[in-house]
## 1
Amino acid sequence: MFNLSYKTQRILILFGFLTIPVLLSLTFSYYPALSLLYYSFTDWSGLGWEMNWVGFDNYKEIFSRPEIFGVFKNNAYYFVGGLLQTCVALYFAIVLTSRLKGRNIFRSMLFIPYVLHSVAIVIMFRNVYHVQYGSLNIFLEAIGLGSWQQQWLGNPHLVNFSLAFISIWKYFGLTMVIFIGALQSIPADNYEAAKIDGASGWQTFRFITLPSIRSVLELMLILTLTGALEAFDIPYIMMLGANDTHTFVSKTVDMAFKFQQAGLASAMAVVLLLIVIAFIILQRKLLFREEK
């Protein structure tokens, strides 16, 4: 009954192994993605299934309304903050990879913010940034810098810096742990050979450490870029878009669920995806060109 040829058995086994992954991919990845693309060409409100085909009108609206596409300037704060976070995290990773006493305690302390819920973090930093009772203004007053006290969330020139700092504070520990893992994979023999040859600390970092963690650096820059473009939870929970703090994702959420313009929100999601892909390709071409 089961006297099948070797070729038939091979085809059945391959078919059996591939069917479930392909079905799962089609169900949870490709179908939702194609649906999103379709909705972006309609005037769907997000309620019911009544919709009309509007062509590229949603895309024209995105690029013609400054209050939609212009919010990308706020994402720039998170990108610059992410670059700063990557540099500082690499420095701390190098320090905490050395034979520093109590380094595991410092690693844990720096990683804890990452596991905190965003709502809890927002509540914490509301107490930090409060104008009258915030710990930041109280600290400035205590050290004689009372003139530096600010409305950290009320001043339109400072609010996005304040929000970007919270993102740096939260994700710094994760970046540092990833760098520590990469640094620990570098053979100690390389450093010992460099030390015997009389290399300085900077030369060791420049010619051994950086080339060894090049792929991790590339990954972190991609994560920084995508994280900045998709910044949402902390600014939205903290400010709900007030005081010109909308990011592109929070604007998309408002468009879909507050203003019931799901078709336009779908087009914004597609535009964000294309921008992320374009920046990743550009970044790989310019910064991490393969050596021939």
Note: Residues 48 and 118 are 32 Å apart (CA to CA).
## 2
Amino acid sequence: MATLDDVAAPQRRTKRKLTGYWLILPGALWLLVFFVIPFYSLVASSLFDPDGSVLTGYDMTWHFGNYWDAFNQYKGQLGRSLLYAGIATAVCLVVGYVLAYAIAFKAGRWKNLMLVLVIAPFFTSFLLRTLSWKLILADDGWVVGVAQAIHLTDALNIVGLTTTDDRLLATPFAVIAGLTYNFLPFMVLPLYASLEKVDFRLIEAAGDLYASPMRGFFKVTFPLSLPGVVAGTLLTFIPAAGDYVNAQLLGSTNTKMIGNSIQSLFTTQLDYATAGALSVILMVIIVAAVMAYVRTAGTEELV
């Protein structure tokens, strides 16, 4: 004879299953409204008739040639965006790792204060922070004066990061510096989270086994911090590749990124077909790069 517990057990299991679905529902609705529908609209606009206009209207003609035409026309800006984002991510990784290491292992009672200083730029507007770099890199500013005195401007001109040897603003260097500054916290915080979890006794054990500090770092500390490295590089590279504010405010016509072209096509030229095609191309390239990077880094084993 079945007891009350035998009857109630299936009902409890059903409720637990439904509870999971109810918890997923808000996130699923959010993704549906703010990702799936806009993404569908973006893909549809990328396949509009290229001969359409705002006055005559656009027809959905499945014109896949828009992708090839947009790529050929804007491949320079596309390559420049990936290059600038890659350099900014590499600089963020080096600077951010040193900073995160210092906070995790050396800051002591100043740890919380240093973490607040890392996120302090978020208390002001992204636009305001970027505009401030126009003052820092102004032609008559002390930064340019020091760079000229130590011949940094000459070195940057040789490697192609500046166009003249007497200014930093409106050059690739200024755009990359802005990207590095604005996205540095996205690199530091994941690195700090990973480094803080590292058991310092393992580092001490490496020293006890006569490993040099450098060898102990590359054999113990860095491998254990790889989840933070992977997360930080993704969080930095992805938004940097699509950014247009830094190139708009700190660059020139020769440093336009793909985000500037998309913004201009959507808002000024009203060429929705090309703008949509460029957006889809950028998204596909970033997704492919991220998948290749994650596969190479072996994130499945790291997290």
Note: The chain has a mean pLDDT of 89.
## 3
Amino acid sequence: MSKATRAPRPQRRADRPLSASNVWATVLGGYIPLILATFVIIAPLLWMVLSSFKQPSEIVTTDIVVLPGSFDPANYIQAAHQIPFLRMLLNSTIVTVIGASIKLLLAISTAYALVFVRFPFKRTIFVAILIALMVPPQVALLPNYVLIANLGGLNTYWGIIVPGLGTAFGTFLLRQHFLALPMSVIEAAELDGAGHWRRLTSVVIPISMPTIATVALVSIVNEWNDYIWPLIITTDSSMMTLPVGLTMLRNSESGADSYGVLMAGAVMVILPVLIVFAALQRYIVAGLTQGANTG
């Protein structure tokens, strides 16, 4: 005797994807916080870009003027003439390329050693890296300044670059990613006679490109935007970087009439970083996710 099949229970209206309760929950819990967070992040940047084209009368006014009367690049031309812009752009490029490259190489080699090389006190070194991750870099400003000044590094490229070569964040992120790599691949390369250098360059780095690109982008942004240390270590305008140049621009352009010029200078400082971010942004989410999967 066959058992009678029970008819499926009709889906309640509240459980349907397009029911009123689900739509309201999605809007209140998803779209509104997303729009508010995006507005808080984007609004100051958009206001800065629009203000860089405005005349002083359009910025210093009791009425809110969103769009400039015309997209006249006069503020950009004036900012480029007030400071040695090309020289500062060259300085920022040299410091960023050399500093970020060395920082990335050190992070990759250190993370590889912490995962794949056997040596004493490895755990202690990793704990020291974690402690460095928690310490704000500002506490090392005075010791670094005394050391670099005594070594003759004032107003030099190496004086700007050397104190920031260590990256605890990049080392930690790459170590966590290397721990998640399939050990069978590494062991197969070792059985084929590959040494540490060949395993690093032929196996580990090619399959870790998203995480390496993430560390590279973070290093580039940090080196480009670094303000406090280059401001302290350089007194010669020919060795200053672009963020320090904004201070010179602020000192030379005092008063409310200078806001448009300052906004134009700020846009010129952040524009190269935005271009690099646009080129590498597809690696960022994948790299951060892979690096955070293994604890």
Note: The chain has two domains: 21-75, 84-252.
